[in-house]
Amino acid sequence: MAKKIKTKTDDIRKLSDADLQKQIDESYRGLFALSLKRETLQLQNHREIPRMRRNVARLKTIQRQRELIAQANPGGTS
User: Fold this and answer.
1) Cα–Cα distance between 77 and 65 in angstroms, integer?
2) Among 16, 26, 30, 34, which one has the highest count of C-beta atoms within 10 angstroms of its own C-beta?
3) pLDDT given at position 61
4) Is 76 left (phi over 0), alpha (psi -120 to 50) or beta?
5) Backbone dihedral region of 43: left (phi > 0), alpha (psi from -120 to 50 degrees) or beta?
6) How far apart are CA 70 and CA 30, in angstroms?
7) CA 36, CA 13: separation in Å to the nearest integer?
8) For residues 35 and 22, what is the distance between their CA atoms, to the nearest angstrom?
9) Is the pTM above the cut of 0.85?
10) DSSP tag of 15
11) Poorest-confidence range of 9-13, 47-51, 65-69?
């Protein structure tokens, strides 16, 4: 299982900053849709919500790491 997450993380790290932000926005929309489904009792798999939350957290962590690297290297060399 750890290998699958590592692969997912590696794929996320390959995204550009704009694509990463787009993924974050899409994940938030997906999380909102899942929340609506849960409230209207249409959600079939209740484990989708924590999975989506972890995905958002993973994306935001990588985004924050890039911000910290950019602050540490003001010249743009990473």
Assistant:
1) 15
2) 34
3) 96
4) left
5) beta
6) 29
7) 30
8) 20
9) no
10) S
11) 9-13
